[in-house]
Amino acid sequence: MLEDKNQERTSLEKLGEFGLIDHLTKNFELKQPSSIIGVGDDAAVMDYNGKKTVLSTDMLVEGVHFDLSYMPLKHLGYKSVMVNLSDIYAMNAIATQVTVSLAISNRFPLEALEEFYAGVALACKLYNVDLVGGDTTSSARGMIISVTAIGAANESDIVYRKGGKPNDLLVVTGDIGGAYLGLQVLEREKEVFKVNPNSQPDLEPYSYIVERQLKPEARKDIVELLKKLEVKPTSMIDISDGLSSEVIHLCKHSDVGCNVFEEKIPLDPTVISASEEFKMDSTMIALSGGEDYELLFTIDQADFPKIKGNPNLTVIGHMTEKNEGIHLITRGEAKIPITAQGWNSFNE
Amino acid sequence: MLEDKNQERTSLEKLGEFGLIDHLTKNFELKQPSSIIGVGDDAAVMDYNGKKTVLSTDMLVEGVHFDLSYMPLKHLGYKSVMVNLSDIYAMNAIATQVTVSLAISNRFPLEALEEFYAGVALACKLYNVDLVGGDTTSSARGMIISVTAIGAANESDIVYRKGGKPNDLLVVTGDIGGAYLGLQVLEREKEVFKVNPNSQPDLEPYSYIVERQLKPEARKDIVELLKKLEVKPTSMIDISDGLSSEVIHLCKHSDVGCNVFEEKIPLDPTVISASEEFKMDSTMIALSGGEDYELLFTIDQADFPKIKGNPNLTVIGHMTEKNEGIHLITRGEAKIPITAQGWNSFNE
């Protein structure tokens, strides 16, 4: 039986580093007009015809950012790209290329990497970005992923973290808190599995929040929607570390204060029910959960009619003078200072 | 005494991820006209005024690519940048920006990261590139570095791995094999130290090759020199994995064969003497050693008068028709096929 299992596994030593990159990237086509040369030379070559180039990079580390015991590799490949595209969209730019680098221990067979790259390929296809480079090397332990995303935008379209003004409205896309609760569900099932490997977890009631954790979608559609609505946010950031942390970033960079209204924070019904099940406060989860990859932005009040009633966009507060501070206005109308409780990898 | 030691150490938990990035990058200025926004937003913003953008990324993993028992962190920061700039210069482009991402275990105090970033800063200063982004996160074990370098070039100046023609001359910059032998010296001293921690290693006779290993320099000067000499190589690559591996890459991409003449391979006298001491063949080291970060390129024979006699450039062979194969012509005039023996991280 052991031999049968091994037949499906191709050791990485056999392929070597160059063969591996060729093998893993051979099905990636270049579709962006700005992609001149992709994988296979010393560097990728791109051309933006005078547009601004936007670039973002992130690292994901096994045991810190993901747990392979419940994160399928294809999802991981997809999510690694999403995390970076999200940063490009948070600049109000359109992502055009990514590079994906991997450090992996020899315990991973080729087929595992193929799964990972299948996820990368799917993300590239759905979001219309080209894989143009990367590096693949061995690690002493575990899997470490580094992705760099490149995007393009007209100078006049780029939105920074700075730029928000007092009285601007604070808007969040989609709903938040789901990714964090999805992680709690997966962690719980992992513990159950450890005790009883024959248990059949029923994840069906949690499918929305589990998908938010395993297969988040970056909000390219919002960049397109805002263009269509002719709304240019005054400041913007993506929600990777939790709402409170991102609100603080916007306030700090824009030199303003903020009031966030608890009752306005958009929560999916599954988030509310799972919060109750886990005996956690759903507002706290929205503020501190992270990994939702929604966008958080400020708009001039004059733009409110343009976004009013759009199901993708929720006004959750407004910016104030800096000296008024950053507060959550609770359902009970208490005013609580918001402190950074976003995810901090060094505090684990 | 233990308390005294600890006074100099700042734990990473104290600073948190955002504070850490701010702290480590606060002394980096943007000097490139193409750098619009650096660290501190969701993405860096660059503008190339219609020039081609060139981008390269590499990962360095503790225990695979470097050993902190003899690699000072400042050197490591410097080398991490060099490895990537080298890829940009190998496109005949000028590097303009880098992003540096780090995954590190909690065993590293802040001061260690400051050392690393001091090396990054020195590299940025000397090579006139801007640090515009990166990510800092924790790792389960060890230190993993991912650097992305961005460069710019006029389309007509870019040199690819493809483009070499039969009868083109094969040229190498500087001398090769030193970095690999430097590593052998450092490995030997590490073993000696394990046996006798009081031994005082005398590295003076090996200073050139040890520096080649610990503080390589990417050949920006060669890109400038070639421009001045009005020579545009027909194909080019940097020597990161060893001469044989790079020659094969050029031949494969250019669809040609090659003859390399053993007697022409430029070796520093220290490389020759250290080879003898380690009972290794100096040609084999040059062919397979790697990490020299010199440039290897082909030029049209008509350009030979322009490079003749330049101490930085050595003609070591010529390209042939593809069906003639890739060979080393030894001092004894034997013709030996060159096979890829470059460094392969999965074979360790």
Automatic annotation (TrEMBL), chains A, B:
InterPro entries: PurM-like_C_sf, PurM-like_N, PurM-like_N_sf, ThiL-like. One of its GO terms (molecular function) is thiamine-phosphate kinase activity. Residues 40-152 form the PurM-like N-terminal domain. Reaction mechanism of ThiL seems to utilize a direct, inline transfer of the gamma-phosphate of ATP to TMP rather than a phosphorylated enzyme intermediate. Keywords: ATP-binding, Kinase, Magnesium, Metal-binding, Nucleotide-binding, Thiamine biosynthesis, Transferase. This is Thiamine-monophosphate kinase. Mg(2+) 4 binds at D42, S56, D87. Mg(2+) 5 binds at D241. Its EC number is 2.7.4.16. It comes from Flagellimonas profundi. Pathway: Cofactor biosynthesis; thiamine diphosphate biosynthesis; thiamine diphosphate from thiamine phosphate: step 1/1. Substrate binds at H65, E291, W343. ATP binds at Y117, G134, D135, R161, S240. Mg(2+) 2 binds at D58, D87. Belongs to the thiamine-monophosphate kinase family.
